[in-house]
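Letters spell out the chain; the tokens describe the backbone. To illustrate:

===
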Amino acid sequence: MVRLEHFGKKDYDQLIQWVESPAFLLQWAGPHFSYPLTYNQLDEYIKGANQEQSPLFVYKAVEHSTNQAVGHIALNNIDLHNHSGRIGKVLVRREARGRGIGLLMIKGVLQIAFENLNLHKVTLGVFDFNEPAIKTYKKAGFQIDGLLRDHRRFNEEYWSLYEMSILYREWKQNP
């Protein structure tokens, strides 16, 4: 239903359009970008990405039936010594939500992490109010490791963040 392709400069405009507000940007990317998202920020983000031995792989999810990009996902903090990595910047285009695309994206990145990169553990963080994402991650086999209370501040509100992880053996049971 979807395939993962490397994200590049030609994809900047579309991603910028998907980031609709400062709150959405923080929810999607944490504190790594500032609103509005710009070409310069994206240039820095993908610098050195998608190369052999890179600690960062950035993908767009392309729907087979339409050949249109419907999502974005990154596998970063790749540590080949400790065999670990972190999923981040998971975004499903608003019009494509509710169709299981997020789960397919997660499963695709986990396959890359565990089969291609030989990782042992993959982690991610998700804000506690993002119930659809939490449900998707659990369905993919992730477990909650803990809650970082009042972890990020947006305006005068604090957001708590779940840390989640999946181990290779858990993924193997739920590919």
About this structure: Strands lie at 2-6, 57-63, 69-79, 84-92, 121-127, 143-154, 157-167. The helical segments are 12-18, 22-29, 39-46, 101-116, 131-139, 168-173. Residues 22 and 36 are 7 Å apart (CA to CA). Residues 101-116 form the longest helix (16 residues).
